[in-house]
Amino acid sequence: MGEPVSTDVRIGVVGAGAMGAAHVETLHRWVPGAQVVAVYDLDLDRAEAVAGSVGAFAASSAESLIQDDAIEAVLVAAPDPLHEELALACLAAGKPTLLEKPLSTSVEGARRVVDAEVAVGRRLLQLGFMRRFDPAYVALRSAVLAGEVGRPRAVHCVHRNVQAHPSATSDGVLVNSAIHEFDCVPWLVGDRVDAVTVFAPRVDGDALQDVQVIVLEMAGGSVVTVEVSVNARYGYDIHTEVVGTEGTVSLSPPYGLSSRRDALDGRRVGADFVARFADAYRIELAAWVDGIRSGSPATPSAWDGYLATEIAFAAIESLHTRARVEVPRYDVPALYG
């Protein structure tokens, strides 16, 4: 008898930083039917170390990895400014791709990616908005859409990171951090964003504007507040509450320990998003691989990524003008209908 034929999806990963390395480990340990065969990073030593940990090889370039016929799918966890060109390269190669957010660092770039996928004629891109796979968020959405709190009137969101990256900018708070809310809130309540207004502290010169408070006006009449900070210091903290005509429903801490010491009683707060959303990442990657194997790609799609980008850049305009900015409306391409 010959050797059994592997049915694993052979995956190449572009970007071996903290996020890319975590994805490699998750695919290797937790996702049946996935095999990481190649890793690329500008830091070749880093790529070799991450690849070696799962028996893969370090590719010489992102282009060679994407063009390799032995690689069936690509996961992109490269720096944000590279997302657009890498997404376009993967589409041109016909490779199913999981692309970390954002879709692009500009609205025009995001639209170019959408138009390229529409031209291909089939969905190949899945965006890395992992909250859609988080069990707590899924339960919250199910309760809201089932009408358990009546008609949604307000949504309150908190998004706090421990410490800003040295390269963080005031605009980046919106396009890199708050973009998660820009994606998950419409999904959560089944409604679109009509307008956005951003309130931020006045600072000296080019100092980082942190904390920012964002108000989203939804088409159905509800109002959303988002408090986002990249320098909370005490830990990584995410919270969402939906207030309806018949009650409220909110996330409760799905993980963590409580402790009593030094005259304090409280819950320990995690240090980063990787730990908080560990289950979400596992489910997200499994859904991606299952979608490749079944031919039915999972959402969020490139169109979802484009809509979140539109909201993010409307928010940036509001940040600079201190004015209410309407979010453009577009017809959904048939590919995503």
From TrEMBL:
InterPro entries hit by this protein: Gfo-Idh-MocA_inositol_DH, Gfo/Idh/MocA-like_OxRdtase_C, Gfo/Idh/MocA-like_OxRdtase_N, NAD(P)-bd_dom_sf
Domain Gfo/Idh/MocA-like oxidoreductase N-terminal per the UniProt entry, residue ranges: 9-124
A GO molecular-function annotation: nucleotide binding
Boundaries of every Gfo/Idh/MocA-like oxidoreductase C-terminal domain copy: 142-327
Signal peptide from the UniProt entry: none
Family according to the record: Belongs to the Gfo/Idh/MocA family.
Protein name: Inositol 2-dehydrogenase
